[in-house]
Design brief:
mainly alpha; 0% strand; 72% helix
Amino acid sequence: MYNSILRGYSISNYPKQAFSIFSNLRTKKGILLDQFSFITILKASSRELAIFYGQTIHGLALRCGHLFFINVKNALVHLYSVCGRIFDAQKLFDENPETNDVVSWNCLMGGYVRFSKPVIVIALYRQMHRSCLTPSVTTFLTVLSAIGEVGDSLAGESLHGHCLKVGFCFDSNLVAALIDMYARTGNVCSGRKAFNEVVAKDVVLWNCMISKYAESGLLEESLALLRLMKVHKVKPNSTTLVGLLSACAASGAIALGQCIGSYVEEEGLPLDVVVGTALVDMYAKCGVLDKAIDVFERMESKDVKSWTAMILGFGVHGLALDAIRLFSRMEEEGFRPNEVTFLTVLSACSHGGLVVEGMKCFERMIDEYGILPKIEHYGCIIDLFGRAGLLEEAHNFIKSLPIKGDATAWRSLLSACRVYGNVELGELVKGVLVGLDNEHPTDSVLLSSTYAIAGILPDQTRMLATETDTFKDTRIRSARKKEDKMLKKAGYSTIEMDSGV
């Protein structure tokens, strides 16, 4: 009975309650705690990441002799793994290694995956294979994740063959892991073959294949698979479309995005928070602002992300005042903006030249909502001053920042100096950037453009560079020469033509 109570709390939303019950049971006479009591309390400790309490249970289990039960040992290995104590997990695993079963290996390999040590995971799997233990589905899921992180396509194909040999390739989760592994190793076609081999595909498997096509830039294939999904009479859900819409937004594939929007309408899918927000984001980033507004207003429900996506849409289209009005409406309807929302509003103010409104928004973020600014928020304010020609204000603002030595902020000011041809400040900023040892060819291009806009000829530019006090230090001069030799990569853009990006 007591174990049932412990287990109930350990799997509930309040696993910490199991700690007090376990402690009370220890103090009562006539109640003996068995291995199941220890397994249950260790699982609760794992969920709470209560490493110190777990170590206490470890000592108690050792004194009571319960550590000889393999399930108790496995629960401890899992606890140490999820709490980031991978070396303690390895040490415990190495004690009496002949007793380790497949769960023991799975717990340790899972810990190394969390610890970002995929090479060790693959090595452990090979050791396990040599010990003649039969791997489980969990084993394959863990090792496939490690192979995908390493990017070893050959090892992935070998493991795929092993999955076929033991008959696990019809498990939906395992096939999804195979698809993910092949996509991460740049072989999405092999992932499609694994997908095609499954007869009864659920919506999770369809979603996985569609999203991997989209992430690989194969948007046409994603859309074709979405249509095939309809032929097989599998009803899509929000997850099916979100990844595809995000890929369309990132690549500017408006034709495909509109096809997906039409698909949502044809299938009568509800414009919930997830699908609606993804559509708003896609339409706004692809330049169809009217459609984004229409979807936003028709959404059944909205959250902070929905409002933020629409505010961002107004901002990127240069409609700063509309962005501020929507922000005010968001607050009136009882939604609390987060740091991303404020970032989109500040960006809109920057592009719209609304200095006063931007500074009010920045101050409200700190004073009213208690959000600490990040470097991105500071960057928007610097850009706001720079675009408005308030270069000295921008310079003073950078000097007052609590985050010192950020090259992005100084580079933003250098860009503003180029726009207004402020050579003196531009040289000063360039010197600071070189002093930060953050070399980038863009800096030299921006400074050269600043000279050009100021009407200074190339030979005069060189004379100014030798006379300025900014580069008197020998170390900075040598760094500057080194930077001037750097090559700037050519920029490029993508457009959609003939239904292709």
